[in-house]
Write a structure and sequence with these properties.
Layout: E1 4-8, H1 14-26, E2 29-32, H2 45-55, E3 74-80, H3 88-96, E4 103-110, H4 117-124, E5 129-137, H5 143-158
Parallel strand pairs: 1-2, 1-3, 3-4, 4-5
Amino acid sequence: MVKILVIYYSLEGNTQLIAENIAKTVNADVLRLVPEKDIKSTGGRRFFWGGKQVVMKEKPVLKPFDKNPLEYDLLFIGTPVWAWSFTPALRSFFSEVKLQGKKIAIFCTHSGGMRKTLANIKNKLAGNEILGEIDFIDPLKNPATHVSKAMEWARNLITLI
């Protein structure tokens, strides 16, 4: 049996919505990346602080993982888009966990501007097989549509392994 893990960071709940529904669809375990000190999810300052962390390539200390990603056959990795890239929590994850030879699917959530987010993630995952990628615009504004899209995508991807 194929072991599947969904790994994600979410500040406002958009990425969490997609990640949890992917996990339900493919019967996967879930690993939420949680920084020891995260930015506040409300107020306009979150955009400044989040963007600064991305631009400065910061790597926040993450709380200990309760799952070992190296023990899984297929990984779904998701992030919100901050400053047109993946979040600092994912940067920390990529520096802590050396993924090689894994089958991986990547996704992001955003409010209309993902630019090179998925390409940047793929660069960090060189040496792995990227099975698919997808993005979701404001999932919490239309959850039924986005959840359905995520579930269909995940179901199609697991047929590739």
